């Protein structure tokens, strides 16, 4: 078959005299529909012809490219290959890629392609490609046992993670729930601190603390909340307190502060939609006899009285 003038190479010979390395070819062998293939764009550039010319030659000889020799990729398959980095060879300026449709050639299809293009370059490159396909098959065969062991390890890891998740769920189910009220004797600072930490960790949306006296210990406890939980502190603060908040918020999730408009005797901790009455400031909990109890009133009632 005579080459049409438009099918000839146009200064796009990528490897005119240099041999194509095995690694370079293997990097361009992809798996589509569980079949190892090479893409028309890569083959055209390796052969030193425009992709448009390669496709025209194939279309004129479709009887030589049955389904087990060549796949016509769907738009979704083409997009997936392109997004995964297919055809990373630098395309010269003015190079015609041959349209948006994409052909994928199996090992047999590559061999047939060389006979259709009828050039020494195509023949030489096709021989290298055949060797690359053979080398990959040998590698897969030689390492089949290793692949199976890796797959088995991954399966066991998944099963272990599932079992661990069940165990953790069971631990959480059997763990004692945070009680609605608690009493702390003088000196029970640690017990009070861990109890308040439990309340803070239960928050899913918001935490609001109403407490006249706040220091860095209070901020540290409020940092125990889950990611994404908003936190606001209503307190009476000085310049030093403002500075503490400012320094904290530069390095940690923000804790908002609101100046209390009046003196508040009791302290309140709002966790989502629950209100807890605190018998002492958070920073002093457990230093003296005090209690924490859950209230039945709505947070809106407390917040409304602050205005």
Describe the overall structure.
The chain is of the alpha+beta class and 307 residues long. It has two domains: 140 residues, no CATH class; 125 residues, Endonuclease Chain A (Endonuclease, Chain A). 45% of the residues lie in helices and 16% in strands. Helix 2 packs across helix 3 and helix 5 packs antiparallel against helix 6.
Looking at this protein, list some descriptive labels.
single chain; 307 residues; alpha+beta; Endonuclease, Chain A; 2 domains; 7-stranded mixed beta sheet; 4-stranded antiparallel beta sheet; 11 helices; 11 strands; disordered N terminus
Give the domain tally: 2
Largest sheet: 7 strands, mixed
Output the structural class.
alpha+beta
The overall pLDDT, averaged over residues, is 79
The count of helical stretches stands at 11
The helicity comes to: 40-55%
